[in-house]
Amino acid sequence: MVVMKMKFPFEKRVKLAQGLWLLSWFATVAGAITFTLGCILKTELRRRAEVMDNSDIHVVPNTLMIVGLASLGINYFASKICQDALDTERFPRWKTILKPYFAVSCFFTVLMLLAVIMSYAMKGSLESSLKGGLRNGIRFYKDTDTPGRCFQKQNIDRLQMEFQCCGNSDFRDWFEVQWISNRYLDFSTKEVKDRIKSNVDGRYLVDGVPFSCCNPSSPRPCIQYQLTNNSAHYNYEYQTEELNIYLRGCREALVNYYMGLMNTIGAGVLSVFLLQGSVLVSLRFLQTAMEAVTGEENTEMETEGYLLEKSVKETIMEYLDPVLKFLLLTNQVEEGTTAAADPATA
């Protein structure tokens, strides 16, 4: 059953080839933009690698870069095919190439759609990665003398100031870790001794936050120590007062930033996907319309073009059968090699 059959007079075929040539170059530029967007997102993610527990989220920019490069090649060949479609003597040389060309093109176009879906669906993975990474970043904040962690304090301070956030979930996360290094503590003082003895882990815990949590927009000088002690500050109520530190956690701030970036990129790549799909559909109509002219004396005759020669299911199986047979053959060869190498089986 032929899908989407259309009639193509000579003038319509010429216009289709010319219009498709121009469209393919637009799609080539769009492919370059897709690659660039992938590079931008990759760079932004790498900038905050120290506060990410894993790199699973990098699958999105990696996929964008791959499909962007593939799109450059796909649309370059599409423009060459359109040029040769205007010459009935040059077009037949593409006949053997077009079937694998469409298979590869459809694969990367679907991959582009998957990249768009992933850019919206990876929020959970991003959040869990940031949760673990920020937790470790706060825990190692004080280790400025430890190799590999020397810049952890600087990175966390810059992060909190840039994104106007404090802690992982909120500022209270700093109450649960010792973020002041032992080298800056006077262990001969009663206060330090009492605080260390007050918890089983022997850590110096305070209800305070680093200076980078201070909100410069607050009219009051920053209160970063004894945040929960009302009597330590004049005219201060911990429960009711709007604190002059950032209240939003850095995990929330970073998730909002990266999801906003990925959603914007996803919308752009979706437009590129639609453009790429238009190129492939139009090229398929041009191919089938031109094949009817091949070998005919009257090259200006009216021809029929179609999207699929068979039903969607039959077409998919036609492309999958060689792949499945290859995989089956590979599996049989591996089993035969294993059996030959195993003396017990022999």
UniProtKB/TrEMBL annotation:
One of its GO terms (biological process) is visual perception. GO terms for cellular component: plasma membrane. CDD domains: peripherin_like_LEL. InterPro entries: Peripherin/rom-1 (IPR000830), Peripherin/rom-1_CS (IPR018498), Peripherin_LEL (IPR042026), Tetraspanin/Peripherin (IPR018499), Tetraspanin_EC2_sf (IPR008952). It is a multi-pass membrane protein. Pfam families: Tetraspanin. The chain crosses the membrane at residues 59-79, 100-122, 257-281. The keyword Transmembrane applies. Its main location: membrane. Keywords: Membrane, Transmembrane, Transmembrane helix. It is found in: Membrane. PANTHER family: PERIPHERIN-2 (PTHR19282:SF440), TETRASPANIN (PTHR19282). Belongs to the PRPH2/ROM1 family. This is Retinal outer segment membrane protein 1a. It comes from Seriola lalandi dorsalis. The lineage of its organism: Eukaryota, Metazoa, Chordata, Craniata, Vertebrata.
